[in-house]
Amino acid sequence: MRIAVLDDYQNVALTVADWSRLPVQCSIDVFNTPIEPAHAARALAPYDIICTLRERMKIPGELIRTLPNLKYIVVTGRRYDSIDVETAAQLGIPVSNTEVRGGGGVAELVWGLILACARNISFEDRMMRSGGWQNSIGMTLRGRTLGLLGFGNLGQQVATIGHAFGMKIIAWSPNLTAERAQQGGATFVSKAELFRQSDVLSLHLVLGPKTWGIVRAEELRTMKPTAYLINTARGPLIDEMALIEALQTKTIAGAGLDVFDQEPLPDEHPLRHLDNALLTPHLGYYTREMVGSYYEDAIIAIDAFFKGSPVNLVNARQ
Prior knowledge:
This protein is of the alpha/beta class and 318 residues long. Helices cover 32% and strands 14% of the residues. Helix 4 (105-118) crosses helix 6 (153-164). The two termini are 24 Å apart.
């Protein structure tokens, strides 16, 4: 059995989990760079099992149909939108996902981005290295308003830290109620008021048909010119071109972005050239503890598949 471990950019998959627990007849190949869609069919043709890292690589139905040896797919993380699970089921290929353990990393990165934006840390670091000294003035967070677009488990983690900084917390999401917001330590406001009042606005929504492009030029124009937008959720929640324009025209002070419409972000993407855009390469979940838990669960799933009793199935044979 040949196993392909995809998109392990940092080459950590084999060191953060114990793959020796799998049967000795398994051979494991790790792909450290993204596989271009045009080359995917040839690159993955020899493999019986594919193990993805979150949603880094899409596995559409047309690709699944071209893989003659494919017998099983395991997706690390709960979400499996990047896999055509229906086509896999039709072809008798089970797909499993894994739990999310070792949490806290995303909320911590949110606050890293907030602090870096508020105090211009990345910009001042670059200026210091080129001989500069004090080129900007920061913003004190205490007494400011933190807006949360989405107020589930992660949004509430961010809110808890916001209280420690002495911030006022407001929240809105399509299904949020005033009672649930209050229970989580926030004040419920309308979507319009969320954008108008926030000094820092952080996104924590699941991407879907109703939330795709939920932050448009219209919303960005209502934000304070001193406000910062933080996105560690999904790139397409924001109209990317509208955001680029808002940053170029200083409609808002800046943005801290960990997710993008296209990942990896193209080399010449406009966001790479904006001083008021703080960029990280989808690091939110990417800590040794969380990635280790993903691969440990993937190993358990693969072992169960070998034993004929696959676990955590997200599709069924048709």
